[in-house]
Input
Amino acid sequence: MTAPAPARLLTVNLGVERTGPWTSNGRSGIDKRPVPGPVRARAAGLDGDLIVNTRAHGGVDKAVYAFAREDAAFWEEELGRTIAPGNFGENFSTVGIDITHAEIGQRWRIGDAVFEVIRPRKPCRVFAGFWDVPDLVKRFIAHGAPGCYLRVLTEGEVSPGDPIEVIKRPGHGITVNLMLRAITTERELLPRMLEAPEMLPKIQDRARTWIEQQRRQPTPQQPFVPHATAGERAEEHA
Output
């Protein structure tokens, strides 16, 4: 049996400016291109990366976006076309690590930087427009392998080919896939988000709100079903 490939960065990708009717502000940095290392990872993102819509991308809780090339292979087959590293809008194209089932709060050492898995990527219309696949958002969520956003816990330099070492596994079982489902199509999973201490406070608040809403809903009244009399039971079995 062939041993699995060691986890590593395949490429480090930085955004280039794109324009078009599918952008949110007339410009977008979703198109990431591989660059030679080293690249400095800072708390707010990678040096040289283009972030246009700073309300939705970048910042401490979305500093770096990672996507597995193993998951990219599904979309290449699904759409019948080659999808180059960076075309998911990802900064890190990885191999050998299961991002979909990584737990929230899992920590990776790459180069001399340390990263923390913090949330799944929730796709938007810009992503669908960039690929020219109108129903991509729905399909991407349904497939359930969205990649993940990383926090930068320790700033440092990363380069293509760097090993990815998992240095912390929280053990609570709240994975990237589970969180995606909870915040999109399976809201009944929201209470489970409280099981992960590393969960974003706004998601924890959303979970508590959902629980409170369920608590306040009136209990459905059960229909009255009279018990059959002895005579009626006898007639049923006659």
Notes: The chain has six helices and eleven strands. Helices lie at 69-79, 125-131, 136-143, 176-183, 201-216, 230-236. Confidence is low (pLDDT under 50) at residues 224-238. The first strand starts at residue 8 and ends at 15.
